[in-house]
Amino acid sequence: MGLYANVPFAQAPGMGLNAFFTFTVVMIMGFTWQQALAIVFLCGVLNFILVITRVRKMLILAIPESLQYAIGGGIGFFIAYIGLKNAHFLDFITEGSSILSSRIEDGKIVQVISRDVVPSLARFNDPVTLLALIDSSSSLP
Question: For the chain, how long is the longest CA-to-CA vector?
Answer without folding.
Answer: 56
